[in-house]
């Protein structure tokens, strides 16, 4: 069995009187694809924000790759190898795909946005950006402006921007949202191709995607993980069926 790369212990986040996460506990193994599912409002996105570091928990602990990162700001978590795929609003729409990726590579190296840089490191950065573009299926679109990409291609670019930070674990919040069947199939194939070297944690409402992609699934209800297991175990789990899946996957 693989080692645990992420241990989430008793995370709580309250918004006024509402506990969006209410003692969420979860273990993610190195190299696995781990899906978070649950009904609307169960706290999935809140949990992803807490793991990424964009939302501070009110209680609980996050241990990543052997270190307690609960109090670390997001940028330091990215440096430690814990990255989140962002919505396209965070990319430079009027810059080409390749430049967006090169900026993400630069951000990882801690580079500032100086206008003078040694030519060799500049070339290395662009070579690396091109390699990431290839990995996410955008090798033919290097010169295309980000805001001219199709919706599915923008999602591929988002994944590429996260990959450019060279993560050990990648968090994805509803990667398939708003995509048609062809685009979904393409992104699914891309995520499949990442398995192994990288650990993936994703929130996804498309159960076909979840059950095809995930090695293990955690089910969140009212801010707590009520069950964790393989797709077969989750499909058959009486509490999960009662709380969420019902006849959907019968
Ligand atoms: N910033 C916020 N302020 C107040 N309430 C919030 C905030 N963010 C989330 N909530 C509430 O916390 C609960 C959990 O929300 P969250 O978005 O984490 O659930 P989710 O499982 O991702 O839902 P969905 O599947 O609908 O995206 C919801 O009741 C939501 O309304």
UniProtKB/TrEMBL annotation:
Pfam family of the protein (one): ABC_tran
One cellular component (GO) term of this entry: plasma membrane
KW DNA-binding (keyword) present: no
Gene3D superfamilies, per database record: P-loop containing nucleotide triphosphate hydrolases (3.40.50.300)
Record keywords, A-Z: ATP-binding, Cell membrane, Membrane, Nucleotide-binding, Transport
One Gene Ontology MF term: ATP hydrolysis activity
Family annotation (InterPro entries): AAA+_ATPase, ABC_AA/LPS_Transport, ABC_transporter-like_ATP-bd, BCA_ABC_TP_C, P-loop_NTPase
Name of this protein: ABC transporter ATP-binding protein
């Amino acid at each position: 069995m693989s080692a645990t790369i992420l241990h989430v212990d008793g995370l709580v986040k309250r918004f006024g009187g509402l506990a969006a996460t209410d003692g969420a506990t979860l273990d993610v193994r190195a190299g696995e694809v781990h899906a978070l599912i649950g009904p609307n409002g169960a706290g999935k996105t809140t949990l992803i924000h807490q793991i990424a570091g964009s939302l501070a928990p009110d209680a609980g602990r996050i241990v990543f790759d052997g270190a307690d990162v609960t109090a670390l700001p997001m940028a330091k978590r990215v440096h430690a190898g814990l990255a989140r795929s962002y919505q396209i609003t965070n990319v430079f729409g009027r810059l080409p795909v390749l430049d967006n990726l090169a900026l993400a590579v630069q951000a990882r190296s801690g580079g500032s946005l100086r206008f003078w840089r040694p030519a060799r490191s500049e070339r290395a950065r662009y070579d690396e950006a091109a390699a990431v573009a290839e990995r996410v299926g955008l090798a033919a679109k290097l010169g295309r402006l980000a805001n001219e990409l199709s919706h599915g291609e923008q999602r591929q670019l988002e994944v590429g921007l996260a990959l450019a930070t060279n993560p050990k674990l990648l968090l994805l919040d509803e990667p398939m949202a708003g995509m048609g069947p062809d685009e979904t199939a393409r992104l699914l194939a891309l995520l499949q191709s990442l398995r192994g070297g990288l650990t993936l944690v994703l929130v996804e409402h498309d159960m076909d995607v979840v059950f095809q992609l995930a090695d293990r699934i955690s089910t969140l209800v009212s801010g707590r993980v009520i069950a964790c297991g393989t797709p077969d175990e989750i499909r058959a789990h009486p509490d999960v069926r009662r709380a969420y899946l019902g006849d959907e996957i019968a």
